[in-house]
Amino acid sequence: MVWVVVLAGCGMLADEEVEPDRAEGARVLLGLLEFLEVEEEPPREGYQRDLFPHWSDISGSGCTARQDALLAQAIGLVQRDLVRPCVIVEGDWYSPFDGSTYSGPPAEIDVDHVVALAEAWDSGARDWTTARREQFANDPLNLLVTDRQTNRDKADLDAGEWKPDRGDAWCVTASMMILTKLRYEMTIDRAEYDGLREMARRCERPDQRTVPGVPLPGTPEFLGTARAVLDERGLDLG
Q: What span, in angstroms and rounded, lies between the C-alpha atoms of 228 and 226?
C-alpha cells in the first residue's frame, strides 16, 4: 500500500477568514424556507432504498459521492492511496450532529443523507425518474459526514421529528435540509416547517458550527449556493 498525504477541506478557507453575518444568514435562510410547499405527507408505500442509486460519480471526479464528501469535509490531513487516489486510508472528521471528532479509517464513519432517502420519497421522490433520484442521492448539498451511531439514531426522520441534540448544529442542519428540499422541489409538512424554522433561527447565534465544504448561512459561499439553487428553480431571493 502506497500512501500520499494531502490537505483536504480547502473549500472552507474563505468561511474561516470572513466572519459570517449571522443575522443576515438567518434572514436569508428563513426566506428560503418560505419557498417550500407545506402539505401533509401520504402514507409511505413502495419505498425501497435501491430505488435511489447512491455512491455514484455524478461529479465526474472519478470518485464516488461518498469519497468526494469525505475528502471535502476532512478537517485536516488525509492519507490517500497513491495508486487509487479516491481511496482514503485514514483522516480526521468532525461530526456536527454530536460534536465528536473521529480519526482513523473512513470505513468507521458514515456519510449521511441529511434529507433521508425515505423522507425524500415521502416528499415527492416517489414520482421522480431514476436519474433524478440518483442525482439527489449523490448531491453533495445533502451529504454530511457523521458519527455512525448518531446517523442510526436520526434514521429517516425529518425536522419535525428529529433535531441534533447539540443546538450549535441546528443552523447547518436546517440550511442543508432547506436548500436540498428547495433544489428538488420537495414538500414539507407543518411539523417539519416548524422544526426547520426553529433551527434556522439559531443561525443568529455566534455558537453555530459547520464543517469544511458546508458553508454557513451569512457567508458569501452560502449566498452563492442559495442563489444557484433558486436560479435552477426560476426563483428570486430578492
A: 5
DSSP state of 166: S
Helix extents (H) in 78-154? 117-122, 130-137, 148-154
Ramachandran sector of residue 6 (left: φ over 0; alpha: ψ -120 to 50; beta: rest): beta
Name the E strands within 48-193.
77-81, 88-95, 100-104, 110-113, 143-146
Please state, in angstroms and rounded to a whole number, the distance separating the CA atoms of residues 205 and 197. Answer: 14
Question: What burial class does residue 7 get, using C-beta atoms within 10 Å of its C-beta: 0-12 exposed, 13-18 middle, 19+ buried?
Answer: exposed
The C-alpha cell at 205 is: 447565534
Note the pTM of the prediction, 2 decimals: 0.91
The residue count of the chain comes to 238
Largest pairwise CA distance in the chain: 53
Helical segments of the chain, H only: 13-17, 22-33, 65-73, 117-122, 130-137, 148-154, 170-183, 190-201, 220-233
pLDDT digit string (tens) for the chain, length 238 residues: 333 333 344 333 333 456 889 999 999 999 999 999 999 999 999 999 999 999 999 999 999 999 999 999 999 889 999 999 999 999 999 999 999 999 999 999 999 999 999 999 999 999 999 999 999 999 999 999 999 999 999 999 999 999 999 999 999 999 999 999 999 999 999 999 999 999 999 999 999 998 899 999 999 999 999 999 999 999 988 7
Buried b (16+ CB within 10 A) or exposed e, 167-195: ebbbbbbbbbbbbbbbbbebbbbeebbeb
- 170-183 vs 220-233: helix crossing angle, rounded to 10: 20
